[in-house]
Amino acid sequence: VAGENFDQSPLRRTFKSKVLAHYPQNIEWNPFDQDAVNMLCMPKGLSFRTQADNRDPQLHSFIITREDGSRTYGFVLTFYEEVTSKQICTAMQTLYQMHNAEQYSSVCASSSCSMDSLASSIDEGDATSLAKLQRYNSYDISRDTLYVSKCICLITPLPFMQACKKFLIQLYKAVTSQQPPPLPLESYIHNILYEVPLPPPGRSLKFYGVYEPIICQRPGPSELPLSDYPLREVFELLGLENLVQVFTCVLLEMQILLYSQ
């Protein structure tokens, strides 16, 4: 388990994640930092869901800044896939049995009752809350399907956010589609790693993803740096008043700290 969150139900806990594979194995100008990438891809750790939970894919990005000031950008698509290991499913059910037993004991303790007199002394409110807890906060290996989070990540020298997002979504569709793509998955990964070059400064580049073409543009030497993030999302996340306040702070050269989950 990642962190001390044992009071949470097992499906609300987070578990330790790890990098399963990365390609290419090593790049001289960009050595792979396994611990950093693992933490930034899954900052909250590995998580589990059932068919009753929302499992829509989520996209986020990160920046790795080195001591010399150089930056690399990561774009991550997190999705959930079905757990096929019966051992893991059994372990999850065992965790729930232990968790429910602890909740049962705490409800009993709050009612100042013994196990023998539980039925007579537990009040109706506690009984109702315990029943709801066991009904909505449970995992039954014979009834529920268990899913676990997984990430696919692209690490790039420039923040081509839209292009990376489109490629990752297309790759995810290819992985989950019942109809396989025209070529093996490895060929699309090899293409974007070894055959798609950086566009020259001031030029655009069009390359083919898995299903549709993708276009990315690189600013010229006299243009502003690349900022490929949609401004609409900033307004949606911060709101108009907060954004105006942040912009004012920027113009006044104040120090700004943005804190979020």
TrEMBL record:
It holds the Pfam family uDENN. The keyword Hydrolase does not apply. InterPro entries: cDENN_dom (IPR001194), DEN5A/B (IPR047278), DENN_C (IPR043153), Tripartite_DENN (IPR037516), uDENN_dom (IPR005113). Residues 1-261 form the UDENN domain. The keyword Methyltransferase does not apply. It comes from the Eukaryota. Keywords: Guanine-nucleotide releasing factor. GO terms for molecular function: guanyl-nucleotide exchange factor activity; small GTPase binding. PANTHER family: DENN DOMAIN-CONTAINING PROTEIN 5B, PINSTRIPE, ISOFORM A. This is DEN5B protein.
